Amino acid sequence: MSNAKGEPIEGESIGRGCGKLYLTGEYAVMDVEGLAVIAGVDRYVTVRCHDAGPTQPVSRVYSSYYGPQGRIIDIDAPDDIATHTISLVYRIAAGELENTPERSIDIVIESDLDDADSGAKYGLGSSGAVAVAVTRALGAHLGLELNSLDVYKIAMVATLLAGAAGSGGDIACSAHGGVVLYRRPNPTALAELVAADAVAAVAAPWPNLRIDARADLGGLQLLVGWTVSPVKTDSQLKKAGGADRDFVRGVSTISERLWQALADGDHTAAFACLRENRTLLQDYERERAVCIETEKLKALADIADGAGAAGKSSGSGGGDCGIALVGVSNGADAEETAADITARWQAAGILSLPLRLAAQL
Fold first, then answer.
1. Which of 89, 169, 170, 193 has its CA 20 to 30 A from that of 54?
2. What does the alpha-carbon distance between residue 29 and residue 42 come to, in Å, rounded to a whole number?
3. Are the C-beta atoms of residues 90 and 75 closer than 8 Å to each other?
4. For residue 272, which of 232, 322, 327, 229 has the smallest C-alpha distance?
5. Would you list the DSSP string of 140-186?
6. Spatial CA neighbour of 83 closest among 63, 102, 67
7. Residue 336 and residue 219: Cα distance in Å, rounded?
8. pLDDT per residue over 197-245, tens digit each?
């Protein structure tokens, strides 16, 4: 509920979670030693919370998933990521705040992470962004003071309670915005913490977790190309199986080097990191007999490389998006290089998405 300018109305709390794209670290990030560099993009899930009218005795959550009538919120019987997040935030608020007001609340979830015309998914990480946006909006509405790490941990625990299994890289990026260097928490240790007490788990230290964040790409420009072929990440991960030590360590070293290259503004080193990660993914693809770099994703990366930039698939591959980093290279103007790449992508049937790096949240 907002006014005509999209600004919050009085008494309304708003939270957002950005979409994400992997620069390096796909597949390796599922391992406890895996490091990934993940960029947030300026497409968002937005959640708005406001007190319901005096005649509404129950709280409701609304989204395209729940239909026009919405769904009554039962914090004692959550069954999906959104409702588990709502339940967990309420439980945390009850423990941290005195005299938490008992009032009916309406929660409205809106997303622009997918294609507006067809509804096809770009692969920007919608479920993690939902958990992040709900945490931010409802937490603020109930009076909780949450930083980006708090938001990540609440969204991550809620996702685990809902039965979803992933590295959490999308959640970390969605909670922080900008660019993150990420290593997942130890899944066994985290599962034990959550099983013992989900609320206490949020406040506890998480073994192995690493999240470093920065606001920019060191002067590089991010281009995103969509192959118009959505793919399910879970099915890709099942086909590929677990990554071996050499692959994980190789990709993690590349991610560390890319992170340093961004800090140094070293475009040549950053390009080399993307190209090396692409080569490792190609080797992994052949070994596991899983399709990561489709013909369109290959064309996307080859076009970027041929223009003096660097490109690769992003995420689990098999469709969805690929990325290119463009910067100072061989004396070419970055804007001209970017325009050349996007024109060549279009000729190859690849849609250039008008995405920019998300601001830090």
1. 89
2. 23
3. yes
4. 327
5. HHHT----HHHHHHHHHHHHHHTT--S-SHHHHHHHH-SEEEEEPPP
6. 63
7. 15
8. 999 999 999 999 999 999 999 999 999 999 988 777 777 777 777 778 9
